[in-house]
Automatic annotation (TrEMBL):
Biological function: Mechanosensitive channel that participates in the regulation of osmotic pressure changes within the cell, opening in response to stretch forces in the membrane lipid bilayer, without the need for other proteins. Contributes to normal resistance to hypoosmotic shock. Forms an ion channel of 1.0 nanosiemens conductance with a slight preference for anions.
Key word Iron present: no
GO terms for MF: mechanosensitive monoatomic ion channel activity
GO cellular component assignments: plasma membrane
TM region(s), chain numbering: 123-145, 165-187, 193-214
Basic and acidic residues: bias regions: 416-427
Upper taxonomic lineage: Bacteria, Pseudomonadati, Pseudomonadota, Alphaproteobacteria, Rhodobacterales
Membrane-protein topology: Multi-pass membrane protein
Assembly and oligomerization: Homoheptamer.
Source organism (scientific name): Paracoccus hibiscisoli
Listed name of the protein: Small-conductance mechanosensitive channel
Entry similarity comment: Belongs to the MscS (TC 1.A.23) family.
Length: 435
């Protein structure tokens, strides 16, 4: 880290030593006198000559003044020299216009001498700025080291952040902030604020292009951060996302891993989970099941509904409150459907087993009261010469029912989920459910 900061400061040293860019040539301002005074021209020429004599860069330039118009001739080694001279002459009182006839010198020796002089000037400035460079490097190194020390305080960050992912993000933010502050302070001590603006502009353009190129990655990062903060589900919760249902194993920076009820692993990207409609079947332990029961449309529907409600109320795994419900839902030419529902507590009861057992008990109760499932009716017309009475068809009797004794959750599947949840340090979910 210190080596990288030293390289940046070394690159910034020549920039800090350079003189500011010359000003843009100015056009003489003010009113033009109607009198053509030769004495005024001589005064202007004398003033310009004294200016040219004081600046070594203007040694190869001569001036002539006629009616307030200044004509410059000669040779220079840099075009910036002419621009600087025009800026100075535009401020001389009485100058109407400046005619530039100065050319760049083509003499190799003169150009080399000019390059040598500029190099010596800048080298002198760099040497003079070495103490400031050393001071900037020292201050920047202290800031970087302090930021690195703070980012490695894992216990302190763990006390602030709710999970390891946020703690790691805070550590990276501290390190990056320390680097930026160190660079700003070091360049400011060296007087290279222009380079600082260039670097910040380049960083902004790079960040903008990176955001478009890595949009999915950034979206997944933000989704992971929000999910780890909001905790919409806990470990071992039964959730459903986009038609995929399973128990939550872990939430990592790459995705959320589910274990389906068939024992398959599913990893869903976090950005999909954050934007999708998520159903958590475990967050509320009380859950209602629904079963559909078909009976003969000619039966007493009110009494059949009472039988269903009484049977539901007598089931030991069905909660008393909220109360069970039952209503007539659909009527067809062959049957009527009674839709029945009851609430169970998922803390000690398996939902699917409870629903299946409730259907078995309700069907048995209705059959015992004579509310049988209507058989399909087919009307067949037979024409016979010798009619004989066919024997009456007898309906087969239902075998005796056997009560399902165990309606608890599948212990083997719960153990499978716990084995899959062996902590590897990457899980961002809270290990204990919230109250």
């Amino acid at each position: 880290m210190i080596r990288a900061l030293l390289i940046l400061l070394a690159l910034a040293a020549p920039v800090a030593a350079q003189a500011p860019d010359p000003a843009v040539p100015q056009v003489p301002s003010g009113a033009i006198s109607t009198q053509d005074n030769q004495a005024t021209d001589l005064a202007i020429l004398a003033r310009i000559s004294s200016i040219l004599a004081q600046v070594p860069e203007f040694d190869g330039v001569s001036a002539r003044v006629d009616a307030g118009i200044v004509t410059l001739t000669g040779e220079v080694t840099e075009q910036q020299t002419v621009a600087r001279l025009e800026t100075l002459l535009a401020r001389v009182e009485g100058v109407v216009a400046i005619e530039d006839r100065v050319t760049l010198s083509t003499d190799l020796g003169t150009r080399l001498v000019s390059v040598r002089d500029r190099f010596q000037t800048r080298l002198t400035a760099v040497v003079a700025g070495l103490p400031f460079m050393a001071l900037g490097l020292a201050v920047g190194a202290v800031i970087v080291l302090a930021g690195g020390w703070l980012s490695r305080r894992e216990r302190a960050l763990a006390g602030i952040a709710p999970n390891p992912f946020i703690a790691g993000f805070l550590a990276q933010t501290i390190r990056l902030t320390a680097w930026i502050v160190a660079l700003v302070v070091a360049l400011d001590l060296m007087g290279a604020r222009a380079l600082l603006g260039t670097l910040l502009g380049a960083a902004g353009i790079f960040g903008l292009s990176l955001s478009f190129a890595a949009r999915d990655t950034i979206e997944g990062f933000v989704a992971t951060m929000l999910l780890s903060l909001r905790q919409p589900f806990n470990p071992n919760d039964l959730i459903e996302v986009n038609g995929l249902r399973g128990r939550v194993i872990r939430l990592t920076s790459r995705g959320t891993t589910l274990l389906t009820l068939d024992g398959n692993h599913i990893r869903i990207p976090n950005q999909i989970i954050y934007k999708a409609v998520l159903t958590n079947y475990t967050r509320n332990p009380e859950r209602r099941f629904m079963v559909d029961l078909a009976i003969d449309p000619g039966a007493d529907l009110g009494r059949a509904r009472d039988v269903v409600l009484k049977t539901l109320a007598g089931m030991d795994f069905v909660l008393k409150r909220p109360e069970p419900v039952a209503w007539l839902d659909a009527q067809g030419p062959e049957h009527v459907v009674i839709r029945a529902g009851g609430w169970v507590s998922q803390d000690g009861t398996d939902f699917d087993l409870a629903r299946g057992e409730a259907f078995r008990l309700l069907r048995h109760a209705l059959d015992a009261k004579g509310y049988l499932i209507p058989e399909p009716i087919h009307r067949i017309r037979l024409e016979q010469t010798d009619a004989s009475e066919a024997p009456a068809a007898t309906r087969p009797s239902r075998p005796a029912d056997r009560r399902l004794s165990d309606l608890g959750p599948d212990a083997a599947f719960e153990e499978m989920v716990e084995r899959e949840r062996i902590d590897d340090g990457r899980d961002l979910l809270n290990p204990t459910p919230r109250g």
